[in-house]
């Protein structure tokens, strides 16, 4: 079987209708690695402004190749396929996925391995391009709020009005998210949007009843 025939089977026809040779295996793994590296690059680009887990990204490539090898093996022998199903049924994954997008990339990697292992790499390429377009479109439709969380501690809860007055004068937007009052004082968490964060902190710290104030970045998203 020539190179053109291998490429044709790897992208459009599937391997189930033909005997699996070394050339077929290499072509399948090669196509899977190429698509997996593409997923690796997209994941790295998407996460450039947030926490980037390099180990997870590398695992996406490995998982795609392993999945393709399993699917390729299952197609070669019915007895092996039954044994593989039994073996995989006892596998349990307990690693928590914190970001929903990580879960999407994980399924993308597994799906690419399955499709390439079945001999339809062309479908995997087209699907990957569509997935990339969807990720770009939906990522562009969401933007960061640009807000901060102001945490203020005061030794008297009776001065809340003075605190909020200072906040409103220095911020374009403010909303109280939490308020804790005790006999020794008060703690407030206020969501704010300001172009002068330093001026806001200086203004609050000049108040005798304010013991400390800090600004924390807010990672929430809006449409």
Set down the secondary structure blueprint.
Layout: H1 3-13, H2 22-46, H3 54-76, H4 78-88, H5 100-117, H6 121-141, E1 143-144, E2 148-154, H7 160-170, E3 173-182, E4 185-193, H8 197-205, E5 210-217, E6 221-222
Antiparallel strand pairs: 1-6, 2-4, 2-5, 3-4
Count of helical regions: 8
| Rg of Cα set | 27 Å
The residue-averaged pLDDT reads 80
Q: Note the gap between the termini.
A: 53 Å
- Residues in β-strands, percent: 15-25%
Order of helices and strands: HHHHHHEEHEEHEE
Low confidence ranges? none
Largest pleated sheet? 4 strands, antiparallel
The side-by-side strand order for the widest beta sheet comes to 3-4-2-5
What gross morphology would you assign? elongated
Helix content: 55-70%
- Strand segment tally: 6
Q: What structural category characterises the helix and strand content?
A: alpha+beta
In words, what does this structure look like?
- By secondary structure, the protein is of the alpha+beta class.
- 58% of the residues lie in helices and 17% in strands.
- The protein has helices at 3-13, 22-46, 54-76, 78-88, 100-117, 121-141, 160-170, 197-205; strands spanning 143-144, 148-154, 173-182, 185-193, 210-217, 221-222.
- The strands form 2 sheets. Strands 3-4-2-5 form a 4-stranded antiparallel β-sheet, with helices on one face.
- A hairpin with a 2-residue loop joins strand 3 (173-182) and strand 4.
